[in-house]
Design brief:
5 helices, mainly alpha
């Protein structure tokens, strides 16, 4: 995600320079940085579920995946609504040939500044996440091998 954050910063720089091809190239770089997390997210959810089992002896796999799915749906809906509200608030009118400066400034904030800020926040959160290390430490304390699958007894 550090690559994504740098890519988004460079998108913002290219955007303020007015260089669309460079913005597209840096957007591709940012997407390459975000890709691994998209692939790893389900594995991290599984690790969090394993942590819940190791510490609380509760299986929460289903609810964790359901909450993640719901969060993505709600976030997408809210994100779309907020973008529309902010554009309306800034005076954006789709029928105008030339948009007011307030609308252009809002577009800069929404498409250059906010994505960089969110990638930076995500990078910081991911750098502090240690669920795999915590699971390994708990398994070591319990005498469970790293590759051993922890299963609930059928009693």
């Amino acid at each position: 995600y550090m690559v994504a954050t740098v890519g988004r910063l460079l998108v913002a720089v290219a955007g303020y320079m007015g260089n669309i091809p460079l913005m597209l190239a840096f957007t591709a770089l940012a997407a390459l940085g975000q890709g691994p997390w998209q692939g790893d997210m389900n594995a991290v959810i599984a690790s969090c579920s394993e942590y819940s089992w190791l510490t609380k002896h509760k299986h929460v796999d289903g609810i964790m995946y359901s909450c993640t799915s719901l969060g993505v749906k709600i976030g997408g809906g809210l994100g779309t609504a907020i973008v529309g509200l902010l554009l309306d608030f800034s005076g954006f009118k789709g029928t105008l040939t030339v948009q007011p400066d307030s609308a252009i400034n809002m577009l800069h904030i929404m498409y250059l500044i906010v994505p960089f800020a969110l990638d930076l926040i995500i990078t910081l959160i991911l750098s502090k996440m240690n669920v795999e290390k915590a699971n390994a430490e708990i398994k070591e304390k319990l005498g469970i091998s790293e590759n051993e699958v922890v299963m609930e007894s059928q009693n």
